[in-house]
Design a protein that fits this description.
Order of helices and strands: EHEEHEHEHHEEEHEHEEHH
Distance between the termini: 50 Å
Largest sheet: 5 strands, parallel
Strand order of the largest sheet: 3-2-1-4-5
Number of strands: 11
Radius of gyration: 18 Å
Number of helices: 9
CATH class of the largest domain: Alpha Beta
CATH topology of the largest domain: Rossmann fold
Strand content: 15-25%
Number of domains: 2
Structural class: alpha/beta
CATH architecture of the largest domain: 3-Layer(aba) Sandwich
Helix content: 25-40%
Length: 239
């Protein structure tokens, strides 16, 4: 089986489960760090000719991460394209199972069972906090409705204030975010790399938590450690 992955988290999942199956991945596929296969461009602008030249048996993609016109073009060229949709934590386990089976996995990998068990074992949060979750600045954008990251945070006791917004990633002015007065501002390091010097200073009167974007937004092997990593980051707030 020759697989091209257009999704960083799926790249990590396939590489760990089926070493040697991947023949092409995006420039943004950073895990595993030693993965040595052809790079085919970005998630939003893949090199279609490069993908076709690899003659993959399967291209794996995501309805949010990748553009429909690119996927349609690959199908029109005769390639088999599997598109995932993950907007809740349980969906991640089902979709990972589907992807790995399609890629030729003989059974459910141990890491996937461990990841599902880790999330199922989460206790009911002792308290609930409200948050805004910026995922970009210039312009400011936040988590809105129906997102995997929002569901993950809710399971950890953090309810983001724009969960009922009509848009999945609404643009919200900074003054409105501050005026919403959440208990916490959650700042992931991807897709925008919020750091100590670029993020918390925009919210001087609010506690801020810097969290790993890989653990907040990726569905793959990192899911197993995500509950612990995120919970620790949410406790370590900065002003």
């Amino acid at each position: 089986m020759r697989v091209v992955s257009l999704v960083p988290s799926l790249t990590e999942a396939v590489a760990l489960t089926l070493p040697g199956a991947l023949v092409g991945v995006t420039d943004w596929c950073s895990h595993p760090a030693d993965l040595d296969v052809t790079r085919i461009g970005g998630t939003k602008n893949p090199g279609l000719d490069r993908i076709l030249a690899l003659a993959p048996d399967l291209v794996i993609a995501n309805e949010e991460e990748n553009r429909a016109p690119d996927l349609d073009a690959l199908r029109a060229a005769g390639l088999d394209v599997l598109v995932t949709e993950v907007r809740r934590v349980p969906q991640a386990f089902a979709e990972l199972d589907r992807v790995l089976t399609a890629c030729g996995a003989p059974g459910r990998p141990r890491w996937l069972a461990e990841a599902e068990a880790a999330w199922e074992a989460l206790p009911e949060p002792a308290e609930r906090r409200t948050a805004v979750v910026p995922i970009w600045r210039r312009p400011w954008m936040v988590l809105g409705r129906d997102t995997f990251a929002g569901d993950a945070l809710a399971r950890l006791g953090v309810d983001h204030l724009y969960v009922d917004h009509p848009d999945r990633y609404p643009r919200v002015p900074l003054d409105e975010l501050c005026a919403a007065a959440p208990d916490l501002v959650v700042l992931p390091d991807e897709p925008y790399r919020f750091t100590v010097g670029d993020g918390p200073e925009a919210f001087p009167d609010l506690p801020c938590a810097l969290v790993s974007g890989r653990h907040l937004t990726w569905y793959g092997p990192s899911l197993a450690e995500a509950p612990t990593v995120l919970a620790e980051a949410l406790r370590a707030t900065r002003r």
